[in-house]
Amino acid sequence: MSRETLDYHWGKHHKTYVENLNKQILGTDLDALSLEEVVLLSYNKGNMLPAFNNAAQAWNHEFFWESIQPGGGGKPTGELLRLIERDFGSFEEFLERFKSAAASNFGSGWTWLAYKANRLDVANAVNPLPKEEDKKLVIVKTPNAVNPLVWDYSPLLTIDTWEHAYYLDFENRRAEYINTFMEKLVSWETVSTRLESAIARAVQREQEGTETEDEENPDDEVPEVYLDSDIDVSEVD
Fold first, then answer.
1. Distances (CA, A) of 227 to 39, 40, 48, 168, 231
2. Which of 9-13, 39-43, 137-141, 218-222 has the lowest average pLDDT?
């Protein structure tokens, strides 16, 4: 990734999202919240509020920059590698699926590796307590500014497939950009740390949910998770 791309991508695009968001939420109830909270609230059960796009793009870009490092790439180790091999068959198979998802994400968007610790399917709108088989790594393609937080997934890694992320260096050769990203930039140490945190959060939430389930859902009602039916979201198994 060249300095010119960094100057434009981080110094102009990312900066503009942050500046526009600050203007949008100034003096509103959103102003006192964390960026993640702004993303979730402005998603508004799929009926997105005006602040969502700038908030989500600001969050996505911060997450993207933290996902890479000079001299990155290679192969993960430990629990991350174990789960990748369990859920995708092998690390090489994961790479092919992730690259294919990123290359085929039409138009502007993001491709993610996420930890799914609920029973939510993007075709459903229910989210009961998960079974063990529901806890897995998934590859998700999202359009525009949308990210997996809105489905209660834990993002672990993302690649920006908006043209501004790669056009100065690779022009229309998105596949070459994706290969460079995966082979030379990904910080697997960061991804591993995120996975540890995601698993810990899932365990804590499941314990809390078990303790309060009968009280909150006395008739075995299933809590709802709202999806945006107007966007095309692909979870790549």
1. 14, 12, 11, 35, 9
2. 218-222
Q: Is residue 26 classed exposed, middle or buried when 0-12, 13-18 and 19+ CB atoms within 10 A define those classes? A: exposed
Q: What would the two tokens of residue 36 be?
A: 């993640």
Q: What is the pTM of this model?
A: 0.81
Distance CA 87, CA 45 (A): 29
Q: Is 160 annotated as a binding residue?
A: yes
Closest Cα to residue 30, out of 38, 21, 19, 22?
A: 38
The residues spanned by each domain of the chain are 3-206
- CB-CB contact of 48 with 56 (8 Å): no
Tell me the DSSP string of 73-115. -S---HHHHHHHHHHHSSHHHHHHHHHHHHHT--SSEEEEEEE
Considering Cα of 171, then 103, then 197, then 224, what sign does the dihedral take? positive
14 is in an annotated binding site: no
The answer to whether residue 130 scores a pLDDT higher than 50 is yes
Closest CA to 135 of 60, 213, 225, 200: 200
Q: Dig out the tokens for 39 from the structure.
A: 């993303």
Structure-token pair, residue 12: 């102009």
CATH code for the part of the protein at 3-206: 3.55.40.20
Amino acid (one-letter) located at 142: T
Which residues are bridge partners to 81 per DSSP? none
pLDDT at 161 exceeding the cut of 70: yes
| pLDDT computed for residue 61 by the predictor | 94
